[in-house]
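Entry:
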Amino acid sequence: MRNARNVLIILVLAAAVAFLPAAGVGASFLGWLLGVAFLGALAFFISRLYREYRVTLYGLGDRNRGLLYGAVGVTVLTLTGTRLLWQSAIGTLVWFALLAAAIYAAVYVYRESREY
């Protein structure tokens, strides 16, 4: 019974988006709003992790910490520009190369942090 109610709610919302005037704009706005809320929650989570592991991050040393921050920055910028980069074959290759380099840098920093 509960599942049928949930399916009915989804069908009513889908019908409203499909048939009401300007409902697509409202749905787009709602999707944007959910995306912003998700990114805000992700930023909050990352800031909490940073506060919790600040001493560990400073213990990496300047070189490895810079490498880690650079890898995170390259990853964020690459994922942000995915649509633009995937429009050409060279862009797709660059996308994969940037992500591979960022992953390699993160793994390198991790392995260096475990050595004594």
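Residues 41 and 84 are 26 Å apart (CA to CA).
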